[in-house]
TrEMBL record:
Name this protein carries in UniProt: Methyltransferase family protein
Record's keyword annotation contains Methyltransferase: yes
MF-aspect GO terms: S-adenosylmethionine-dependent methyltransferase activity
Superkingdom of origin organism: Bacteria
Domain Methyltransferase type residues, every copy: 39-133
Lineage of source species: Bacteria, Bacillati, Actinomycetota, Actinomycetes, Pseudonocardiales
Length: 203
């Protein structure tokens, strides 16, 4: 990672995705989480206070050393054990069928090999487990989508590889997962990042 991506982006992300609006959306998605959780793009750990009592452990995947340091207090205060298990969601050093829940919130936009990451999520899920996701992505509105495509290159440079144009539901299905719940919301934010996918999928 470059200096900007390693030291600045995690701090901006922590603030930008730390609003009451985002917290409420995360809590809504995480209500289904249970058992052993693998979380892709753990960041500074904003999900930890939001996991329901049914969660028994969290294994965190996070490439940024700065974000992991920022997460230290939340990890120490978490009601369940938290273990950092890797840096790359596309290459999970975990056995097959090892998680009851895989969680991704605002992470699939940034993982370089997102297709492989979703296949890895499917691999580590136990039978009956779920991938829970809250992601921004490609809008179905043509006018918004045009702006997303225009700004995508700039967004990637400013936000450490974050894409504006990924069709999250299509990517999930293409990885061999079956979407069992899918909603959409619009943030009170700039239009290019405002379209959200909230869902759950099973292997």
């Amino acid at each position: 990672m470059g200096w900007w991506a390693e030291h600045v982006v995690p701090r901006i992300t922590d603030v930008a995705l730390g609003t009451a609006e985002i917290r409420a959306l995360r809590e809504r998605v995480l209500a289904r989480a249970r058992g052993d959780v693998v979380e892709l793009g753990f960041g500074s750990g904003p999900t930890l206070p939001l996991y329901p009592p049914a969660v028994t452990s969290v294994r965190a995947v996070e490439p940024s050393a700065v974000a992991r340091r920022m997460a230290r207090r939340r990890v120490e205060q978490a009601p369940v054990p938290v273990e950092f298990v890797g840096l790359d969601g596309a290459d999970l050093d975990l056995p097959d069928a090892t998680a009851d829940t895989v969680v991704s919130t605002f992470s699939l936009c940034t993982i370089p090999d997102v297709d492989r990451a979703l296949r890895e999520a499917r691999r580590v899920l136990r039978p009956g487990g779920e991938l829970l996701f809250l992601e921004h992505g490609l809008s179905p509105d043509p006018r918004t989508a045009r702006w997303q495509h225009r700004l995508d290159g700039l967004q990637q440079r400013l936000a450490a590889g974050c894409h504006l144009t990924r069709p999250i539901d299509t990517l999930v299905r293409d990885a061999g997962l079956t979407i069992v719940d899918l909603d959409h919301e619009r943030l009170r934010a700039p239009g290019a990042m405002a379209y959200l996918y909230l869902g759950a999928a099973k292997p």
